[in-house]
From TrEMBL:
Residues 35-130 form the Stress-response A/B barrel domain. SMART domains: Dabb (SM00886). InterPro entries: Dabb, Dimeric_a/b-barrel, TAT_signal. SUPFAM superfamilies: Dimeric alpha+beta barrel. Pfam families: Dabb. This is Stress-response A/B barrel domain-containing protein.
Length: 137
């Protein structure tokens, strides 16, 4: 009887382990989709040159996270059309091979340190994440 109970326990534990695995691991197609992470930073003091330079310093450090394939740090362009938003301080756009690489970025020590060291500078961030095929056409 004890042997049977132990076996049942081990089987249930195995099922629980499988069920707790990330759905990303069970979806290999997610590993093939290019992942773009686009963040808009709004400084608490938008016209403070010192704070702007400090945030740029932090973003430059953040670009060293190894799973990032490409990074673009931008400021609002001098374009004027009704659909263009220009009220942010910095745009941070980075490309990852897939969502798994982006998840690694989210918990990477450099990213966590960036939030800790520079988070006091911004009043808000807006994030747009998107996925898609690696190549079109």
């Amino acid at each position: 009887m004890k042997d049977n109970s132990r076996r049942r326990f081990l089987q249930n534990a195995g099922i629980a382990t499988i069920a707790s695995v990330s759905p990303l691991a069970a979806a290999p197609e997610k590993q093939k989709e290019l992942f773009i992470h686009h963040v808009y930073f709004y400084l608490k003091e938008p016209h403070n040159a010192e704070h702007e330079a400090k945030l740029l310093e932090g973003l430059t450090k953040l670009a060293k996270v190894p799973t990032i394939q490409y990074v673009h740090i931008g400021k609002p362009a001098e374009t004027n059309r009704s659909v263009i938003v220009r009220d942010y301080t910095f745009s941070w756009m980075c490309f990852f091979k897939n969502i798994i690489e982006e998840e690694i970025y989210q918990t990477h020590p450099i990213h966590l340190e960036f939030i800790k060291d520079y988070g006091h500078l911004w009043e808000k961030v807006i994030v747009y994440d998107s996925v898609g095929p690696k190549k079109v056409g």
